[in-house]
Specification:
- The complex is a heterodimer of chains A (262) and B (382).
- Chain A has seven helices and 13 strands.
- With 262 residues, chain A is of the alpha/beta class.
- Chain A has one domain: Rossmann fold.
- In chain A, a hairpin with a 2-residue loop joins strand 9 and strand 10.
- In chain A, helix 2 crosses helix 5 and helix 3 packs across helix 4.
- The radius of gyration of chain A is 19 Å and the shape is globular.
- The N and C termini of chain A lie far apart (39 Å).
- Chain B has three domains: 109 residues, Acyl-CoA dehydrogenase/oxidase, N-terminal domain (Butyryl-Coa Dehydrogenase, subunit A, domain 1), CATH 1.10.540; 112 residues, Butyryl-CoA Dehydrogenase, subunit A, domain 2; 143 residues, Butyryl-CoA Dehydrogenase, subunit A, domain 3, CATH 1.20.140.
- Chain B contains eleven helices and ten strands.
- In chain B, the strands form three sheets. Chain B has a four-stranded mixed β-sheet. A four-stranded antiparallel β-sheet of chain B has the order 2-3-7-6, covered by helices on one side.
- In chain B, a hairpin with a 2-residue loop joins strand 9 and strand 10.
- The chains are: A alpha/beta (262), B alpha+beta (382).
- At the A-B interface, helix 2 and helix 5 of A face helix 1 of B.
Chain lengths: 262, 382
Amino acid sequence: MKIVVCIKQVPDTAEVKLDPKTNTLIREGVPSIINHDDKAGLETALQLREQVGGTVTVVCMGPPQADVALREALAMGADEAYLLSAREFGGSDTYATATILAAALRKIGFDLVITGRQAIDGDTAQVGPQIAEQLHIPQVSYAEALRAEGDHVIVQRQFEDRSHLLQVQLPCLVTALSELNQARYMSVGGIVDAYAKDVTVWGFEDLKNDLNPAFIGLNGSPTNVFQSFGKQLRAPGVVLSGLSADEAVDAIMQTLIQRHII
Amino acid sequence: MDFKLDKTHLLMQEMFRRFAETEIKPLAKEMDEKEAYDPALLAQLQRYGFFGIPYSRQYGGAGSDTLAYTLCMEEVSKVDASTGITISVHTSLCCSCIDRFGTEEQKQRFLRPLIDGSKLGSYGLTEPGAGSDVQGAQTTAVKDGDEWVINGSKIFTTNSGFADLCVVFALTDRTVPAAKGMTAFLVDLKGTPGVTVSENIERMGIRAASNCIVSYDNVRVGADRVLGQVGKGFRIAMAALDCGRIGIAAQAVGIAQGALDEAIKYAKERKQFGKSIVSFQNSQFKIAEMQTKIDAARLMTWRAAIAEDNHEAFGPYAAMAKLLASDVAVEVTRFAVQLMGGYGFCREYPVERMYRDAKITEIYEGTSEVMKMVISGSMKLK
């Protein structure tokens, strides 16, 4: 099975700060990581490969610095990596980003595409579904479990109050929740290998046969964030009951750690 | 000359740091209190290649280098010095002997499982009556037909509580000094008749590490388990210690940096006299002084590591790095406790453990006094 995982390099929000004037993320000096959902998707891809064979390819659109995210994916065990990086791609919204990624995916070829549900810096959850639309393939979003069966995958899709089990014909696209899998670490030998391999860098020229310049980049983006402002958060909250004081503290601490609040 | 780590080493440092913070740090306190290393953590370290960093792919290693190994040692020791010594003894003392002096057959048979993460190694040189004075060793190996029969007792054998293999040094010729009459043997610690491993020795620091007395009572090994030439064991032992000193220097740097980081974090939060204690110039100047010393020790450690990677003579560099770094570790951890006052003295915070852990770096793999002998010996003063 040829599995392609789309990953995004995002600022580590455990340490991120907002610019008080613009309410946008201050990215300077903030460590970058692979988006959590994407990493869970990558882990799933690696496990699928172990089970059914095949290859795992990672694709990332971003600035040249995103190379390190791809190296990390290689060090975790991915077979090959593509970086989509060009001036023409800059300023793309989700639609334009999906357009570019879809063009790259058509060129790379795939049986299964896995993306994260959403990126922690943008939180749109749009790029995965948009890629599937552009590729005219079926999609299942919010995957919390996934297994392969012949030329199908069985995906458990999470809803707020229930789950759906779907059987999907390959080729298809799945968007992964962080809960889908606990990602492995890079291995020491994997890091050595990651830098011995090439990361293929594709610019506009490499994809131009399949890309209309009018639909990519800042000018090709139908949406534009023109203002960002803070708001009072009112989360519904979770009620934990029947716990002792110690258990309650443990449960709260675990949640805070899992969400990278502390 | 470039003091920057390259991309590969930076990513390794990042990986070691993440792993240490997430997997090791939460267990360090409990392992120290229980005086036992967590077997699940050990398995994780093996899985991710922590036990074969500088060794060749040809034998199942990670194919990296000594510099990467020092980065690993620093990052793990920042949160838990016991993890540091567990990795160091395996890598520097046990595996380096086989890598440098083993036959091709011995490398395939003994080195491969050690560095591919399936088995764990240890090193038996020190005896109850022979520490810095290796010449005082009493353990013997006598040839009996095709086999050797080992008798004696080794103390402070790190990893021996769970290690599979030990490089054991025994006298094969008592008519000459140990430097000429010692031979290295590869002994399975598990399941070999005559091998007895004691309980973990109760210690002041690195309490989670396994450090036992190993007794050899008529232990019979075949000639295929002689490492290097008969009578050349002393050279093997000393060569391994040179490697080991780089690991300990990096461990000491890690302990120091870990303690300073913890103390700074605390000093930013702790308020006295209406201000955070980090806002006092005395705190700032002391922190600056400590960070400077740590950086000096780190650079010396890297120099020794790079010299080893370049196949240059690195023994004196390693000794200097260890001499400085161990001194810095003791000083910085003492300061970290002091900066945190009464809380630094409490088990709730990790600096008291780090203070206890730091001391051993001035002792093992050669004491600071032995380091001065090595360094001055290399200076042709006599």
